[in-house]
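Q: Here's a chain of 162 amino acids. Please give me its 3D structure as tokens.
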Amino acid sequence: MRGKNLLIISMAIVFFCFATPVRAQEITPTVSDDEVNRVAQELYCPVCENTPLDVCPTKACAQWRELIREKIALGWSEQQIKRFFAEQYGGQVLAVPPLQGLNWIVYVLPPLVVIGGIYLAVTIVKRSRKSVIPEKKDPFQSPLPAPETVMKQIEKDLHKEE
């Protein structure tokens, strides 16, 4: 009897050591077209010029959308998928360029142009107001030179011409 128990225990140990865990059938999450298009609209087709990936009719773009679907099903984030496409096909596939290299100019230049335009407009308006509004003069100062000096100047000018 003892040998029989020993045999059963040793067989149980062998089964437990080499047995693989039994899992329920893994359910792959279904990824909707909306989820795929949310990522695809922020990517441009590497083949077609200026065509977002979500509306591009080429077969290559359909394959790239399916690749996005697979990556989402695997749990990749939107940023990881964008980074993957940028590494594979270059930065031109991104709808919004990253803030690196000279791409920062795209973000900085427009506000600077707007601020410069506002400053220029304010400066022009201030200058034009200064030229339109007459300067205040001393009320006791006569606006015209004395008539005697005017007459002397006229006589001088007439004598010069002769």
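Q: Can you summarize the key feature?
A: The CA atoms of residues 137 and 143 lie 9 Å apart.
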